[in-house]
Amino acid sequence: MVLEAIRYSRGALEVLDQLALPHATRYDAVRSSRDAWQAIRSMRTRGAPAIAIVAALGLAVELEALRRDAALPPAAADVAALVDDRLAFLVTSRPTAVNLADAARKLRRVAREAAARAGDGGGGGGGADVADAYVRAAERMLADDVRDNEAIGRHGAEWIAARAGGDGDDDDDAALSVLTHCNTGSLATAGYGTALGVVRALHASSRLRRAFCTETRPYNQGARLTAYELVHDGIPGTLITDSMAASLLALRGRADNIAAVVVGADRVAANGDTANKIGTYALAIAARRHGVKFVVAAPRTTVDLKTASGAAIVIEERPAREVTTITGPTVDADPTTPAQTIKIAADGIAVWNPAFDVTPAELIDAIATECGVVEKGEDGEFDLEKLFGQEEGD
Ligand code: MRU
Fold first, then answer.
1. Residue of 16, 98, 182, 186 to test ligand 1 pocket, by largest number of atoms within 8 Å of CB
2. Is 49 near ligand 1, meaning CB less than 6 Å away?
3. In which pathway does it act (predicted)?
4. Is 103's pLDDT higher than 60?
5. pLDDT tens track for 105-122
6. What strand order describes the sheet that includes 274-277?
7. Range(s) for CATH 1.20.120.420 in the chain?
8. Is the pLDDT reported for residue 326 higher than 70?
């Protein structure tokens, strides 16, 4: 069975409810941009690329439904305005990951250009053309994401094998262990994954000894989702709590030592500062302390050249209950028993729950993208602009 967070065919979209995983597998229908917004806000859909794609496709199915019900505005300009309006709403769902804002900018442009081409002066007839152009562009994003992730996986795996592996003196040097954080796999993307795509590529080329994954408190994307993906794909995996990571990295030079930490990203600023799941920064500090390479794996849609540095990235804060409670079935429960939410903190305690942190570029050794791996130049800076051609202009 292929792990699919997003099931789409023209006019129909379903998302895997990631709040229920790994205990239950159920898909929710997304019929509109409002449904997509709710799926993203509630974290039934999460992960920067998946958020962007579900938002884009949520509006695509809404446009198809309007067309089916003969309710699509006939004028091209009106459909372009509707697209503008819905995209503006969708980007309010979660603020930190830039992929959604990037997708919205591109899709808005597609709709406006289609409206200009339709040239019906608001008189009607071109609305269907604008909807068509939008739907096709959203569908391309879905297909491109899988292709890009496979390329990220290949590039990242090659880099780690070449730059972070052993000295090649014995057979075991070929086998690398890596540590990853949060969930960046098929569940966080259209398929394959970014950092977990690198893990998949290492495994597929028989170079992976073991993937360690952190639990990733408070939402437990590592324990619930990454562990699930590793088991599902038969990749040797070991789960640790977040507080064990520094001790694991300190084992460098001993059996199962970690060759690299590989993480995803929600937004990479122009200077390489990277916002990712809370706890990433602590991993980068520990990796540097122990001489372990630190790799960010992300598509170009996560690179935000308009944000100069991490200081300008808005960090989402999530509800206190994610920290003070834990949800799941009780240990011996029948699988059909609904999950229970259990309090784990003292009543009345204040809570700070930032969903992301920013790792300074200084602590990052390489950024693996679908176009190759970017390392720092002699000046010690990442040149991320070179990843983009003319088509990326505003
Ligand atoms: O809060 P989440 O689960 O959406 O956070 C996800 C992450 O931080 C991922 O590392 C990032 O989005 C990259 S997913 C390919």
1. 182
2. yes
3. Amino-acid biosynthesis; L-methionine biosynthesis via salvage pathway; L-methionine from S-methyl-5-thio-alpha-D-ribose 1-phosphate: step 1/6
4. yes
5. 999 999 999 999 987 655
6. 303-304, 267-269, 274-277, 356-359
7. 6-145
8. yes
310 neighbors 360 (Cβ within 8 angstroms): yes
Cα–Cα distance for residue pair 179/48, rounded to 1 Å: 20
For residue 159, the model assigns a pLDDT of 98
| Ligand 1 centre distance from Cα of residue 47 (Å) | 4
Beta bridge partners of 275: 267, 358
Q: Which of ligand 1's atoms lies nearest the C-alpha of 189?
A: 15
Question: How many A from CA of 277 to the centre of ligand 1?
Answer: 6
Ligand 1, atom 10: closest residue by C-alpha: 264
Please check whether residue 97 is in contact with residue 48, taking contact to mean a CB–CB distance below 8 angstroms. yes
Structure-token pair, residue 50: 């998946």
Q: What is the pTM of this model?
A: 0.94
Query: How many whole angstroms from 100 Cα to the centroid of ligand 1?
Result: 12
DSSP for 327-374 reads EE--TT--TTSPPEEEE-S-TT-----BSEEEE-GGG--EEEETTEEE
The per-residue pLDDT for range 293-311, each reduced to its tens digit, is 999 999 999 999 999 999 9
Question: Which one of 3.40.50.740, 1.10.10.410, 1.20.120.420, 1.20.1640.10 gives the CATH number of domain 6-145?
Answer: 1.20.120.420
- The question of whether 266 is a catalytic residue gets the answer yes
Q: Which candidate, 90, 176, 174, 173, places its Cα nearest to that of 138?
A: 90
